[in-house]
Amino acid sequence: VALAQNFQLLALGEAAMKKLTRILVPVDFSTASREAAEHAVALARCFGAKLELLHVWEPPRYVAPDVMIALPGWSATSVEKVAVTAAQKELSEFTARLLPEGLSVSTRVDVGEAAHTILRVAEETMADLIAMGTHGRSGLARMLLGSVAQKIVSHAPCPVLTVRHAE
Ligand SMILES: Nc1ncnc2c1ncn2[C@@H]1O[C@H](COP(=O)(O)OP(=O)(O)O)[C@@H](O)[C@H]1O
Ligand SMILES: [Mg+2]
Questions:
Q1: How far is CA 73 from CA 70, 76, 77, 78, 79, in A?
Q2: Tens digit of pLDDT for each residue in 47-67?
Q3: Ligand 1: which of 51, 130, 148 to mutate, most ligand atoms within 8 Å of CB?
Q4: With contact defined as beta carbons under 8 Å apart, do 49 and 43 qualify?
Q5: What is the DSSP letter of 55?
Q6: Which of 2, 84, 102, 161 would be 131's cystine partner, CB 3.0–4.6 Å?
Q7: Which of 33, 51, 116 should be mutated for ligand 1, with most atoms under 8 A from CB?
């Protein structure tokens, strides 16, 4: 029994010592995601953690094929390139406004379905915390959590800090 108790204590000690080294902040440029980013900056400062700000560009789901063909010189990839370049610029400006001086921050823009991509990046980069808004840009504040937030909270490989923007 004593041995088991010791092991339990060891296990608790290990949990308490879990390090915060990589914080992933999914950003959709909503106020809630900005507030989440501010909390992430404060945490990163405290723990000396690295921050990664991620925006996911979701290709439009319903684009009639003839519309794509009807636009001369515009292939699906070039639409994507234009969108990703614009998102990269917006994310850089968003990050600059956050002013994390002396803090290690990286930004990335990925293409795909938002929740799926956020989960993939969290796994690939071995994030040990995800900080995000409870809601985003869809404006469905009556939902308990936005649709992306729901999926991340349910499937994240690490703890999730959700920040609600009080209207
Ligand atoms: N395309 C995206 N790229 C990165 N993060 C996102 C994206 N969409 C949503 N998020 C993150 O998820 C949070 C919740 O947004 P979401 O679940 O989409 O709510 P809503 O349904 O109100 O738009 C946002 O505050 C943001 O942190
Ligand atoms: Mg949304």
A1: 9, 10, 11, 9, 10
A2: 999 999 999 999 887 665 555
A3: 148
A4: yes
A5: E
A6: 161
A7: 33
